[in-house]
Write a structure and sequence with these properties.
The complex is a heterodimer of chains A (818) and B (247).
Chain A: H1 3-15, H2 17-53, E1 60-64, H3 70-80, E2 86-99, E3 111-116, E4 128-131, E5 140-144, H4 145-151, E6 158-162, E7 168-178, H5 185-188, E8 191-196, E9 211-216, H6 229-247, E10 251-255, H7 265-310, H8 315-355, H9 367-393, H10 397-402, H11 411-421, H12 428-436, H13 441-478, E11 483-487, H14 495-503, E12 508-521, E13 530-531, E14 542-547, E15 559-562, E16 572-576, E17 592-597, E18 600-610, E19 618-622, H15 623-630, E20 637-642, H16 647-663, E21 668-673, H17 675-717, H18 719-727, H19 732-754, H20 757-768, H21 781-808, H22 811-815
Parallel strand pairs in A: 3-8, 5-7, 10-13, 14-19, 16-18
Antiparallel strand pairs in A: 1-9, 1-10, 2-3, 2-6, 2-9, 4-7, 5-8, 6-7, 11-20, 11-21, 12-14, 12-17, 12-20, 15-18, 16-19, 17-18
Chain B: H1 3-19, E1 22-35, E2 38-51, E3 55-60, H2 66-73, E4 81-86, E5 89-90, H3 96-106, E6 107-110, H4 122-133, H5 141-151, H6 167-178, E7 185-189, H7 197-212, E8 216-221, E9 232-237, E10 240-243
Parallel strand pairs in B: 3-8, 3-9, 6-7, 7-8
Antiparallel strand pairs in B: 1-2, 1-4, 4-5, 9-10
Classes of the chains: A alpha+beta (818), B alpha/beta (247).
C-alpha cells in the first residue's frame, strides 16, 4: 500500500461517509444480534447445568406405597446406603395444598410442599437458602423465590393452607430459597415450599417419608453419580427388590429422570436451537449485507480502478487497497458491536434464565466466544467480500472505462422491457423505475435476498406464534368445561353423589365425573414400574384418563392411526402422542403394553393413536375398561360447566366446589379455573415467543439498512445519468419519485420471494421447538400483511435519503462525476 | 505555424534521423468484438510502423476504429489476431498485471475527460503512477511532480483537488500525470475534445513541445487541422488504414 493510495483510501472513506456509516451500522447491528445470541448461548450452556447440578439431583426416587414410621425408615435409609453402587440415600415426601386468601377463598394456585427429615443434611436435591435458615421451625416453611410473586406471599406472614386431609392449618413463612431443580412457579402455575418432617404434625399428618431419594454410582467404589440411566434403573430396581425382601415394603414406583438434565432442558434446547437458528440467519444476512454493500462500493470505484490500471497499477495493488477498505469497515463494525453485544447478553441472559428458574452466577461468556465474535466480525465481511474484491481487482482497464452501471440485457429481458413499454397507460417514471431495479442483477438479487430473508424470518416467527395461538384456541374450544376439581385420591363414594353435591352450586349447569390417574409403563417381565418423573411429580409423568361413556364434554379426537375407543370395550387404550414420554415413543396400534394403575398391574392393547382429548395427552381408556382392570370405579376429577364462562364465575364456582366437597369430607387437591392450564402452556412458550419477536425485529432492521445502502450505491453509480435526466428536463421531484419507486419495487419483489422460504421456516420452527406436537401449521395472513406494509414503509424510509440525494444533484455536478 | 513550432520540428527531425528506428510495430493486427448481434470486427489487417520520436495523429470518422486502435496500442484491449511490438516488447503476449506494469513504464495516457482521481490532489494524482512503478525514488517523487506541473504551467494548483480546476488545467494535470514515469510514448484519446479553442491550442503546443524533446506521441482525434502539429496522419475507415502518409 503506497502512502498516496492510503490517503486515497482515507478520503474515499470520508467522501462516502454516509454510506460507510450505514454499512458499519448495519454490520454492527447484525454482529450485536449474533454476539448477544452467542454469549447468551454460552452463558446458558454453562449456568443451567451449573445451577441445576448445584442442587445435587437424586439419580432416582423410590416411592413406597405405605410408608412405615419415620424411625424405621431412617434405619432402612442407613442400611440402604450400604448397598452396592448406592452413594447416598435421603428420605423425602411431597404433597400439594391450597392457600386461603384474605377473603376466605382458596387460591387457584396450589402450593407443593417438599418435606425432608429434620436431620437431613440436604446433600441431595438441595436448595440455596436466601433468607431464613434450614430446617425451619415446626409449623414454618421456606418458600421458593419465584412462588412469592405468584402466590402473593411475604416472608414472616402466616398463611392458612388446606391440608391433604381437607382441614385448614396455619404455616408461617420463615424464609426464601432458590431451587434450580424445580421449574419456576410462574411456568407451572404452582408454588413450591420446603418444610421439615416435624412440621407434618402441624398439618395433622403422620410423620411419614415415603420416598427414598438415591444417588447411584457406575461402580461400587465410585462417589460420582452415574450419567447412565440404565445403570441407575438397574441399581434402583435392585434396591426396590431389597426393600421388599428385607422389610416387606411395596414399591409404588421408581422415578428415574434423565441424569444430569434439567426438567426444562428440552425447552432450553429448543430455545437454544431457536437462538442458534436466528444467530445463523443473522450471520447469513450479515454476509449478504456485506456482499451487497461492498459490491456497491467497489462498483462505484470501477472507473477509478480503470484509471489506476491505465497509469500502471497492478491487480494486486488494487486488491490491496479495497481489502484494506473492507478490513477498516469490518474492524470498525466489530469495535462498535462488541460492547453492545456484551451488554445485551448481560441484560437478556438473566431474563431467559429466570424463565427457566436458573440464577446465573456469572454473566461472562466463555473467552473463546469473544474470539469467535471478533473473527466473525472481521472474517465474514472479508470472506464474503472476497468474490467482489477479486472481481473488482481483476477488472480490466477496458471494462472499467466502458462501465456505465448497467448489465448487458439478454433478449428475453429486452422483449420483457419492450412489452412493458407498449402498455398504453403506464407512467414513464414507473416503467423506468421497474426496469432500473433489474439493471444491476447481482446487487438486485442480494438486496432481494436480504429483505426476503428478513421477511421470511418475520413471517415464520409470527406464523409460529399464530400456530401456537391456534393450538391454544383449539384446546380452549375442545375444553368445554370451566372448572376442574381434582380430588386427592379416588374415593369410594358413588360418582352420582359427587356430581349432585357440585350441581347444587349456583352458576353450575353441568358436572361430569372423570378419573385421571398417574400411571407407569412396566416392561414385560419386570416387577416395578419405572418412570421418568422429576421430583415435582409433573415433568416426565404419564396419566391415564378414563373417558366417561356418555360424556358430552369431549368429542372423539381426530385419529392419527387405528381407531377411537368403543364405549363398552375393555382392555383397549388410545394413546395421544402429545408430549409423549419416551416409554411410549415406540408404541404403535396393535401393541400390548403393561400399565400400573393404582396398585394393579394391567395389560392393554393399543387400538389407536389420536390427538389430545380435551387438551390432555397421555393414555385414554373407557370407564368399563377401567373398572374391569382395576376394580376401581370411583372418579377423582370433576369437570364443571358454568353458565357464564368468565373468569369471575369460574373462580367463584371453583371456590364453592372446593368448600362444598371439603365440607362433605372429600380431600380436594386442586379446584381451579381451566384458564390456569392455558397459563401453563403460555408460560412454557413465552421465552420462545419473546426471543423470536426481538430477533425478527433486529433482522428486519438489517434488511432495511441493506436496502438503504443498495439504493445509495445505485444513486451514486448513476450520478451522470441523473445529470442527463435533469439536463433534458426532469424535475427534482420526478427524480426523487423514480428512486423511491425503485426502492418500493425492490421491496415488493422481496415479498414475493419471501413467500417461498417462509412456510418451510415456519414448519421447521414448529417441528423443532418444543411446541405441542399437534400444533397446527399455518401461515399468518396478518403477519404477511404486516410485513408487506412494514417492508414498503421501510423501503420508502430506506430510499428517502438516496432519492433526495439524487434529486439535489445539479447537472454540472452530475456530469463532472467520476 | 509559428516560429517556436518550426524550431521544435527542426530539432525533432534531427532526433528522428539519429534514431530512425521503429518504436511501434503492428503486423496483420485484427480486433473483433462479440456483440449480441454477432461478431463485429473493429480493426482489420492493420500494419503500422511508428518511428521513435514521431508525432502521429490517428484520424477518422466516428466508429472508424480510432479509439480501438489506441486501446490496443496501450494494452487496454487485446488484439484478436496479429502481433504488436512496442519498444521491444510483444504487448499481445503480456498478462494483465504485466501489462499494467509495462504501461506504467512505457506509456503515458491522456483521456478526453481527464480522468483525474477525484479524492487526490493534483500533485498526488501525478505522484500516483510513480508509486505504482517505483522507478523514481520515493523521496524525489513530490519534487518531480511539482516540476512536471511547473512544465505544464499549473504548479500553483498542485495541492488543489481536481474539481477546483478548469477543464484546461485538468487536462494539463492529466498530461503531467502521463509524464510521471518519463515514458517514451505518450498516447492521447481526443485530448482536446472537451476544451475551448484557446485551451486546445495550448494543450497541442504542449504536445508539440514534448514531441520536440524526443517523445513519441500518438493522438486520436476528429480534428483534421491538427496536421500542423503532427509528422503524419493515419486515417481509418471502417477499421482499415486507408492513408498513413507522411505530412
Amino acid at each position: 500500500m503506497t502512502p498516496i493510495l492510503f490517503v486515497k483510501l482515507l478520503r474515499d472513506l470520508r467522501g462516502t461517509w454516509a454510506r460507510i456509516v450505514l454499512m458499519v451500522l448495519a454490520l454492527s447491528i447484525t454482529l450485536v444480534v449474533f454476539s448477544a445470541v452467542l454469549y447468551i448461548w454460552g452463558i446458558s450452556a454453562r449456568e443451567i447445568p451449573r445451577d441445576y447440578l448445584s442442587t445435587n439431583p437424586a439419580s432416582a426416587t423410590i416411592s413406597i406405597e405405605e410408608g412405615p414410621d419415620i424411625d424405621q425408615m431412617m434405619t432402612i435409609r442407613d442400611e440402604a446406603r450400604q448397598q452396592p453402587g448406592i452413594i447416598d440415600v435421603a428420605l423425602r415426601t411431597q404433597f400439594k395444598v391450597l392457600i386461603q386468601a384474605e377473603d376466605g377463598a382458596w387460591s387457584p394456585y396450589p402450593l407443593q410442599i417438599f418435606v425432608s427429615a429434620s436431620d437431613d443434611p440436604m446433600r441431595m436435591e438441595a436448595f440455596k437458602v436466601e433468607r431464613g435458615s434450614w430446617p425451619p421451625a415446626v409449623g414454618e416453611i421456606l418458600v421458593d423465590r419465584y412462588s412469592l410473586d405468584l402466590l402473593k406471599l411475604e416472608v414472616g406472614e402466616t398463611i392458612v393452607v388446606q391440608a391433604p386431609n381437607g382441614k385448614p392449618a396455619p404455616l408461617r413463612i420463615s424464609g426464601v430459597v432458590h431451587n434450580a431443580g424445580i421449574t419456576p412457579a410462574f411456568q407451572e402455575q404452582t408454588g413450591h415450599a420446603y418444610m421439615s418432617a416435624d412440621s407434618l404434625t402441624s398439618l395433622d399428618m403422620p410423620i411419614q417419608l415415603n420416598a427414598l431419594k438415591i444417588q447411584v454410582a457406575d461402580l461400587p467404589d465410585l462417589t460420582v453419580p452415574s450419567r447412565d440411566r440404565e445403570v441407575i434403573v438397574a441399581a434402583a430396581r435392585d434396591l426396590a427388590g431389597w426393600l421388599g425382601r428385607n422389610y416387606g415394603l411395596a414399591v409404588d414406583e421408581i422415578q428415574v429422570p434423565t441424569p444430569y438434565t434439567h426438567p426444562h432442558q428440552g425447552q432450553m434446547d429448543s430455545l437454544m436451537l431457536g437462538l442458534f437458528a436466528f444467530g445463523m440467519a443473522g450471520l447469513l444476512l450479515s454476509a449478504i449485507l456485506v456482499a451487497t454493500m461492498l459490491n456497491g462500493l467497489f462498483a462505484q470505484q470501477i472507473p477509478q480502478i480503470g484509471i489506476m490500471k491505465a497509469i500502471g497499477a497492478r491487480s494486486g495493488r488494487v486488491l490491496q487497497l479495497y481489502m484494506l477498505m473492507t478490513l477498516t469497515i469490518a474492524a470498525a463494525s466489530t469495535i462498535f458491536a462488541i460492547f453492545p453485544g456484551i451488554l445485551f447478553s448481560r441484560a437478556l441472559a438473566p431474563e431467559i434464565l429466570t424463565l427457566l428458574g436458573i440464577a446465573a452466577e456469572s454473566l461472562t461468556a466463555p473467552w473463546w466466544m469473544y474470539v469467535v465474535v471478533v473473527a466473525a466480525g472481521i472474517g465474514i465481511p472479508l470472506l464474503f467480500a472476497l468474490a467482489p474484491l477479486v472481481k473488482t481487482g481483476r477488472t480490466t482497464v477496458r471494462e472499467a472505462l466502458d462501465y456505465r452501471g448497467v448489465d448487458r440485457q439478454g433478449d428475453n429481458a429486452a422483449r420483457f422491457d419492450a412489452g412493458l413499454g407498449r402498455l398504453p397507460s403506464l407512467d414513464r417514471t414507473v416503467l423506468m423505475a421497474f426496469r432500473n431495479i433489474f439493471r444491476r442483477r447481482a446487487r438486485f438479487l442480494l438486496s432481494i435476498g436480504l429483505l426476503a430473508s428478513a421477511g421470511a424470518v418475520f413471517i415464520a416467527g409470527v406464523s409460529t406464534m399464530a400456530s401456537l395461538q391456534s393450538f391454544l384456541d383449539r384446546e380452549k374450544e375442545l375444553r368445554r368445561w370451566d372448572v376442574e376439581v381434582q380430588l386427592a385420591e379416588p374415593d369410594q363414594v358413588p360418582a352420582i353423589a359427587l356430581a349432585d353435591l357440585v350441581a347444587e352450586i349456583p352458576n353450575v349447569t353441568q358436572v361430569e365425573t372423570w378419573s385421571i390417574i398417574q400411571t407407569s409403563v412396566i416392561p414385560s417381565g419386570e416387577q416395578f414400574s419405572v418412570t421418568r418423573t422429576y421430583p415435582d411429580q409433573g415433568h416426565g409423568s404419564i396419566s391415564v384418563t378414563v373417558v366417561p361413556p356418555d360424556s358430552s364434554l369431549v368429542d372423539p379426537p381426530p385419529i392419527q392411526s387405528g381407531r377411537w375407543l368403543r364405549p363398552d370395550e375393555t382392555g383397549a387404550i388410545v394413546i395421544s402422542n402429545a408430549r409423549l414420554p419416551e416409554e411410549l415413543a415406540g408404541v404403535h396400534s396393535g401393541d400390548i403394553i403393561q400399565l400400573e394403575i393404582g396398585e394393579s398391574l394391567t395389560s392393554w392393547q393399543v387400538v389407536g393413536t389420536a390427538e389430545p382429548v380435551g387438551g390432555r395427552g397421555g393414555i385414554f381408556i373407557t370407564q368399563k375398561g377401567f373398572e374391569a382392570a382395576t376394580d376401581m370405579s370411583q372418579p377423582n376429577l370433576l369437570r364443571i360447566v358454568t353458565d357464564n364462562h368468565d373468569e369471575q364465575t369460574r373462580a367463584s364456582v371453583a371456590q364453592a366446589a372446593n368448600r362444598v366437597l371439603t365440607d362433605a369430607g372429600y380431600a380436594v387437591r386442586t379446584a381451579e379455573s381451566v384458564s390456569r392450564a392455558q397459563a401453563v402452556s403460555v408460560g412454557h412458550m413465552l421465552p420462545l415467543i419473546l426471543v423470536f419477536l426481538s430477533l425478527s425485529i433486529g433482522i428486519s432492521v438489517v434488511g432495511f439498512a441493506g436496502l438503504a445502502s443498495t439504493m445509495s450505491t445505485n444513486v451514486l453509480e448513476r450520478t451522470r445519468e441523473f445529470g442527463v435526466m435533469s439536463a433534458i428536463g426532469a424535475s427534482a421531484s420526478r427524480v426523487r419519485r423514480l428512486v423511491l419507486l425503485e426502492g418500493i419495487f425492490t421491496a415488493a419483489v422481496s415479498c414475493v420471494v419471501a413467500v417461498i422460504p417462509a412456510p418451510l421456516l415456519t414448519a421447521a420452527l414448529i417441528g423443532n421447538l418444543s411446541l405441542p406436537v399437534d400444533t397446527p401449521f399455518q401461515i399468518s395472513a396478518l403477519g404477511v400483511v404486516v410485513w408487506i406494509i412494514l417492508v414498503v414503509l421501510g423501503a420508502v424510509l430506506a430510499t428517502l435519503a438516496a432519492a433526495s440525494q439524487a434529486s439535489r444533484l445539479t447537472v454540472r455536478e452530475a456530469l463532472a462525476y467520476l | 505555424m509559428n516560429t517556436d513550432r518550426l524550431l521544435q520540428k527542426e530539432i525533432k527531425s534531427e532526433h528522428q534521423q539519429q534514431a530512425g528506428e521503429s518504436i511501434i510495430d503492428l503486423h496483420q493486427m485484427m480486433k473483433t468484438y462479440e456483440t449480441p448481434s454477432g461478431p463485429f470486427t473493429a480493426l482489420k489487417d492493420i500494419n503500422l510502423r511508428i518511428l521513435s520520436g514521431e508525432f502521429v495523429a490517428v484520424v477518422g470518422k466516428s466508429g472508424s476504429g480510432k479509439t480501438t486502435l489506441l486501446n490496443v496500442l496501450a494494452g487496454i484491449d487485446r488484439p484478436t489476431n496479429g502481433t504488436i511490438s512496442i519498444n521491444g516488447t510483444r504487448v499481445d503476449s503480456l498478462s494483465e498485471s504485466q501489462l499494467a506494469e509495462w504501461r506504467g513504464r512505457t506509456i503515458g495516457l491522456v483521456f478526453q475527460f481527464f480522468q483525474l482521481l477525484p479524492t487526490l490532489t493534483i500533485a498526488e494524482n501525478v505522484m500516483l503512477p510513480m508509486d505504482f512503478v517505483e522507478a523514481i525514488p520515493a523521496a524525489k517523487r513530490r519534487t518531480r511532480a511539482l516540476e512536471l506541473l511547473e512544465s505544464v504551467g499549473i504548479a500553483d494548483q498542485a495541492d488543489k483537488l481536481p474539481t477546483a480546476l478548469s477543464g484546461g488545467q485538468q487536462q494539463r494535470a492529466a498530461i503531467a500525470r502521463a509524464l510521471a514515469n518519463d515514458p517514451p510514448i505518450l498516447m492521447a484519446d481526443e485530448p482536446t475534445g472537451n476544451l475551448d479553442e484557446a485551451t486546445r491550442t495550448s494543450v497541442l503546443d504542449l504536445f508539440a513541445k514534448l514531441n520536440a524533446d524526443g517523445r513519441t506521441i500518438i493522438v486520436v482525434t476528429h480534428e483534421r487541422d491538427i496536421s500542423s502539429y503532427t509528422d503524419r496522419q493515419v486515417t481509418l475507415v471502417d477499421g482499415r488504414i486507408v492513408h498513413a502518409a507522411k505530412r
